[in-house]
Amino acid sequence: MPIREVAVAGYRSLRAIRFPVGALTVFVGANGVGKSNLYGALQLLQASAAGTLARALAAEGGMQSALWAGRRPTGKPARIRLAATIEVDGLGTDYVVECGLAPPTGAAFPFEPQIKEESLVLHTGRRPLTLLERRGPRATVAGEAGRARPLGLPLLASETALGAVRDLAGCPELDAVRRAMLDWRFYHDLRSDRASPLRQPCLAVTTPTLSSDGADLAAVFATLVHVRQDTIDLDRAIDDAFPGARLVVPEPGRCASFGMIFPDYPKRLFEAGELSDGTLRYLALAGALLGYRLPGFVALNEPEASLHPDLLAPLARLIVQAAERTQVWVVTHSERLAEALAAHGRVTPRTVVKRDGATWIEGLRLGGEFDEDEASGAGEAD
């Protein structure tokens, strides 16, 4: 279920922006231009599906921190608007959620995010079908024959209808969209310090997909080696980055572990706790991108962190390979990684800039399309 388009307004440095999303989307730019806000907006959309949007915004500092800080039209309420077009069985669905501040007399904390409006619309090719609609505390969902019916439970202003709905009889598309959004995986916190979860053994449980913090990396490798018994891609990725080296994954007992053998020390196993930061981080990215089962959408925020420049081309090849199995979104400030992705994936990296104080993407038209002279290769991988 690919994401076709994303639109965000009123969120941090994103005044109003809409852009298409391809099989492989690459954003590159200097520090401070708002690349991470593009990434963060997608995390908030997932939080909406999980029913934790208000909590996620509160964790960012509340609405006073998350709202667009520039000038706003007078007479209009301050709102954050998040939207995505997601494909379901070949049909597009538009999900939109708007957050604002509590009214002065409302029974809420002063800067608590409040869900004001929400909708999910399916485009069937004949006429749009509204699967979910919410205005204030009232919400309806599509029932049998597409007829709107009350959600069936009272909504708090801090709750999303998409996260709260339970009875989905007659509306499988709504359930499919929510499950697809919950399946998105964001990798931005793959720590490599001494206490990193990546360096610790983990419980030996069949693990097809790497967790966001990488704590089950050893189980992901053990699943490939001992359950799937297919390590061709993994072995190739290791040799591409560390010629002559070998990943060792012992048969798990109660716990799974891994280590590396390097050609300079052929009889010495370097366990995870001994590996360099760059080596460990590359292995974690390999686990994220080569898992037995990849999520429907993978987002990487500055994956080049801690990596030696010589590892960027192997990383780019890993990312391009993963984009053949799932949809991948990369945010980076490394021109070298962006160039490698362009070379290996025939993708056009999009340069993120600040324009009049707002985050923008070079070549993006106001209508949400990229310039025609760039469009032929935009977002497509081999």
UniProtKB/TrEMBL annotation:
Gene Ontology biological process terms, A to Z: DNA synthesis involved in DNA repair; double-strand break repair
Pfam families: AAA_21
Domain of life: Bacteria
GO molecular function: ATP binding; ATP hydrolysis activity
Domain ATPase AAA-type core per the UniProt entry, residue ranges: 24-83, 268-337
Matching InterPro entries: ATPase_AAA_core, P-loop_NTPase, RecF-like
Record-linked Gene3D superfamilies: P-loop containing nucleotide triphosphate hydrolases
PANTHER family named among the record's database cross-references: DNA REPLICATION AND REPAIR PROTEIN RECF, SLR1056 PROTEIN
Name listed for the protein in its UniProt record: ATPase AAA-type core domain-containing protein
Organism, scientific name: Rhodoplanes serenus
